[in-house]
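Sequence, please.
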């Protein structure tokens, strides 16, 4: 076919770089093309959530990301009179990490870029702009223009457009981008030597002008202000900026302003996330107001959903129809996040005194109702992934007298599996993903999963790349480890968190995907048949129908794209 690379990623933002790391770990040949000459260094996202931190853990970069975060960042919402009307202060670690974290995006993006140095088969080329994209039955050809003025072609099996909200790729493909543009732009100001110093964030719901301020790592303070009609041309001037900050610091003129920028906020979603051999991810697929802090995180969810699927298709372990499930699974959740962002934006930045007063009354009622107040504080309003279509095997309550159930017994298929700390056979305590790996996992409570599978099903585990995980109470760990079959990972549950999770549910055996989504759940005796169903919904290509190995001439062409683009400067 003359492929230069397996996957070409257009755009070296956080989504493209995260996807490149995910594919790199799976041995996929990747070329990232970025039109700019370096990473973007102006104000953007300021919040990274626990789901995204788990992804950083999975790609082996979380220890380098952590120094650029403010864990457990509290948000205090105040009205125009300065009264606190709500507090968001989640302190749980359901997925192993703080639920809310302030962060410095340019520094984390740099960690993602530097992480690609680990992979000889992943290359990044800056100063290379996509000018045309052609598709055929077998692949994608990207025509691009380098900084030196040369025209080049890159041939790949698949392309991913992660080139931002104004995506040239999306436009070239004629994919719609429906939604709305917020009438009121925002002014973002980042300041060094934080003149406030307090660790929390404040959202000011003042009908005269909405605003927010956040403490960021390394002594950085972020302010965001609504820009009112007629102020657009003044918004970045010193006089205007100092006037806005006069109510916040004693001497605005003494501030060390790192950067300031006016933004127009949109809420839009692409008509499709896949067109033949091109997939859209991150802002190229969807954009949302910044108030909920979910734009960056939603893009990372795209990357972790798409990464394992794309790798399976490239490796010949799954049919290309698996990639259709990317849109099926991500679209509804993205729409829910856009809805949350719009609602929070209307709540905190509306200019109606009547609507603001109604909000304050509602907040006062919530503050007197402990369950509702706790839900707000724990960020219980945040939509969580719950896939009903795609790579999931729908479940229903078991028909067994030995398993008491009720109509509200929770089902877990399509939701994220938690990540508590577990104990390994050597006595160390680790986060679950570190102890078991973060690929496909067959997780069984108090049963050796190998004993529940037939030889024919066991032989198919490499198609998924699945690990068998036997979870036991910590007291049973030495015994279970001594009796475990070869190839089974045994972990103990020292905190009892996993036992409580299984206690609340009617099933003891799970199949968990590489993006931590529960693909299937069942009683132990049903595991063999259930795993066969998972192979089907994962579009797995079983060994007897696997494709022909790659031709030698294709392998020899692997480095063609990188060689052809060497003249393009690397940031």
């Amino acid at each position: 076919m003359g492929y230069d690379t397996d996957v070409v990623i257009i755009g070296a933002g956080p989504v493209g770089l995260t996807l490149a790391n995910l594919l790199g770990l799976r041995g996929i040949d990747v070329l990232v093309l970025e039109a700019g000459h370096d990473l973007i260094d102006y104000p953007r996202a300021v919040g990274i959530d626990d789901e995204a931190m788990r992804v950083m853990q999975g790609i082996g970069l979380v220890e380098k990301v952590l120094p650029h975060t403010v864990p457990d960042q509290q948000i205090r919402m105040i009205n125009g009179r300065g009264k606190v009307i709500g507090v968001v202060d989640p302190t749980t670690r359901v997925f192993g990490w703080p639920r809310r974290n302030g962060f410095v995006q340019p520094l984390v993006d740099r960690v993602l870029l530097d992480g690609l140095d680990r992979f000889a088969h992943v290359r990044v080329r800056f100063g290379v702009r996509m000018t045309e994209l052609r598709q055929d039955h077998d692949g994608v050809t990207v025509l691009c223009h380098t900084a030196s003025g040369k025209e080049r072609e890159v041939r790949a099996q698949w392309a991913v457009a992660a080139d931002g909200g104004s995506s040239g790729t999306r436009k070239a493909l004629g994919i719609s981008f429906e939604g709305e543009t917020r009438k009121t732009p925002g002014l973002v100001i980042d300041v060094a030597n934080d003149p406030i110093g307090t660790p929390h964030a404040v959202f000011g719901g003042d009908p005269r002008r909405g605003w927010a301020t956040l403490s960021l790592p390394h002594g950085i303070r972020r302010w965001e202000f609504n820009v009112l009609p007629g102020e657009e041309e003044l918004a970045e001037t010193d006089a205007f900026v100092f006037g806005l900050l006069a109510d916040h610091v004693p001497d605005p003129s003494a501030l060390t302003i790192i950067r300031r920028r006016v933004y127009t906020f949109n809420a839009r979603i692409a008509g499709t996330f896949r067109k033949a051999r091109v997939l859209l991810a991150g802002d190229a697929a969807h954009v949302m107001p910044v108030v909920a802090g979910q734009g960056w995180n939603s893009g990372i969810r795209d990357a972790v959903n798409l990464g394992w699927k794309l790798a399976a298709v490239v490796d010949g372990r799954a049919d290309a129809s698996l990639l259709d499930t990317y849109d099926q699974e991500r679209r509804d959740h993205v729409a829910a996040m856009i809805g949350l962002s719009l609602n929070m934006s209307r709540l905190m930045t509306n200019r109606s005194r009547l609507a603001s007063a109604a909000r304050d009354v509602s907040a006062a009622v919530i503050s007197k109702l402990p369950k509702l107040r706790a839900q707000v504080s724990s960020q219980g309003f945040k939509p969580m992934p719950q896939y009903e279509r795609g790579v999931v095997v729908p479940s229903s309550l078991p028909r067994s007298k030995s398993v008491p159930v009720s109509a509200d017994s929770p089902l877990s298929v399509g939701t994220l599996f938690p990540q508590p700390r577990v104990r390994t056979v050597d006595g160390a305590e680790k986060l679950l993903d570190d102890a078991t790996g973060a690929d496909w996992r067959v997780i069984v409570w108090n049963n050796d999963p190998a004993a529940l599978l037939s030889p024919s099903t066991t032989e198919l585990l490499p198609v998924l790349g699945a690990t068998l995980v036997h979870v036991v109470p910590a007291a049973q760990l030495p015994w279970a480890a001594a009796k475990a079959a070869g190839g089974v990972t045994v972990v103990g549950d020292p905190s009892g968190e996993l036992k409580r999770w299984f206690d609340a549910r009617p099933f003891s055996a799970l199949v968990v995907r590489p993006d931590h989504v529960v693909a299937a759940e069942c009683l132990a005796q049903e595991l063999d048949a259930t795993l066969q169903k998972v192979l089907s919904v994962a579009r797995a290509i079983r060994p007897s129908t696997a494709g022909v190995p790659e031709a030698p001439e294709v392998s020899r062409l692997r480095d063609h794209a990188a060689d052809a683009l060497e003249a393009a400067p690397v940031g």
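DSSP finds 18 helices and 28 strands in the chain.
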